Model the fold of this input.
Amino acid sequence: MILAWIGAVFIGLALGLLGSGGSILTVPVLVYLVGEPDKLAVAESLAIVGIIALVGSLPYALRALVDWKSVVVFGIPGVVGTYAGAWLSQFVSGGVQLGLFAVVMLLAAFIMARPKGLHVPRRSGAIWKTGLEGMAVGAIAGLVGVGGGFLIVPALVLLGGLPMHLAVGTSLLVIALNSAGGFYKYLHLLPALGLTVHWDLVLLFSALGIGGSFLGGRIGVRIPQDVLRRGFAGFLVLMGLYIFWQSLPKLL
Done:
């Protein structure tokens, strides 16, 4: 369990250092370090990610760094998508979910490795496009148990027309909303599988993750973001390939 606790702190550190991406480590930590079943890990990941994101959004909200219109336009369709993704999870095996999760990790690594992928002129996107993007990201989040910040931030910048400093704070609230929608559905699905959420684990991981995120925020100002993102992207590639390899027998 000591390794699991270290993993929980690392989740928060990554979130504080990078502004996104930390939540994608939650499922691997729960599966490989704690030993949780695949589907239960996905559900608990949504709860942990949601709590950390909600707490992390408070400083941004207090400094008026949240675009509430985007929270509604992107977040409400996202909740619908996350609920739908959680509903779809009952029709696929845990191995398939982990396989999809590995693909999402590799996509996240690609996005994070791009040196200037988000430095684009501000422009306004159509509301319906933003809403569809929010629903798609939510569906991914609900199915594989990620917060989706690495997808939400680019979407808010490119489609929502937000500057980066607003996109980060807004994305945290959207992540919290998405996670709540997906977790609510999993609460109704898990009993049929004979699984129960371990609330003590969820609260402990959330607390360690929140502490790690504040620590990461302090350290992150001293390290170039490009170096952090590329290093983390390399780590995600290795982890994604490992998870895919581990889930390959179940997929076959």
In short: The chain has a mean pLDDT of 80. The chain has one domain: 2-251.
